[in-house]
Amino acid sequence: GVREALARSIRLVRGRARQVFVIAVGAIILTEIIVQAIVAPFEGVGVLVVVNLIAEGIFQPIEGLAIALVAIHLLELHGEAPAPDEMARALVGEHD
Predict the structure, then answer these.
(1) Average pLDDT of every residue of the chain
(2) pLDDT at position 93
(3) C-beta of residue 28 within 8 angstroms of C-beta of residue 63
(4) What is the DSSP letter of 81?
(5) Cβ contacts of residue 62 below 8 Å, gap of 6+?
């Protein structure tokens, strides 16, 4: 359940909280700065909304990738990461 998941997350991050925080927040701040730099020259609510949605759609996955890589690295450090072929199957939805 939720408590078990939170307990596992705390255990995985223990001793590395600062590094995880810096990477996660750094990725978020960096992508938001890039998005705002792209959106800044545009005027008009409709144009701003469209450009912002496009920019967010391009750069938001970078945040997710950074956080996923940190999670996989933490699992590897604790010897809990699944084999690469298992992770690949889980990502594409193929099951035995």
Answers:
(1) 89
(2) 75
(3) yes
(4) P
(5) 27, 30, 31
